[in-house]
Amino acid sequence: MSQTSQRAPTRPRGLPAIRIGITAGVTGLLCCVGPTVLALLGVVSAGTAFVWANDLYAGYSWLFRLAGLAVLGGLMLWSLQRRDQCTLGSVRKTWPRLLLAVGIAVGTCLVLYAITTWLGAFV
């Protein structure tokens, strides 16, 4: 006698707003986070990381922020297309998740900026 296993119907998962927001937030602040991570891993000295972060932030911060916005938009579009939700009606249904992704991206940028600024005070 064999038992047949019945699978419960799977629900389509929602938009991965947390992962999208964190990825976009980190991308938007890679000018400071990259050198900080290298210093924490011991690849470069703290002084070198501080100089690199200041140079990158002073000269290219707008470019990193635009890259973060591009990553945010691209990941949202890719995620919606993957779920076949790229219509106006579907976007109206998922707008809270889209807004959550934007909020998490901004929050991630702010938290990482605060951490890197705080770590820069010790150099």
From TrEMBL:
<feature type="transmembrane region" description="Helical">
    <location>
        <begin position="20"/>
        <end position="53"/>
    </location>
</feature>
<protein>
    <recommendedName>
        <fullName>Mercuric transport protein MerT</fullName>
    </recommendedName>
</protein>
<keyword id="KW-0472">Membrane</keyword>
<feature type="transmembrane region" description="Helical">
    <location>
        <begin position="98"/>
        <end position="121"/>
    </location>
</feature>
<keyword id="KW-0812">Transmembrane</keyword>
<keyword id="KW-1133">Transmembrane helix</keyword>
<feature type="transmembrane region" description="Helical">
    <location>
        <begin position="59"/>
        <end position="78"/>
    </location>
</feature>
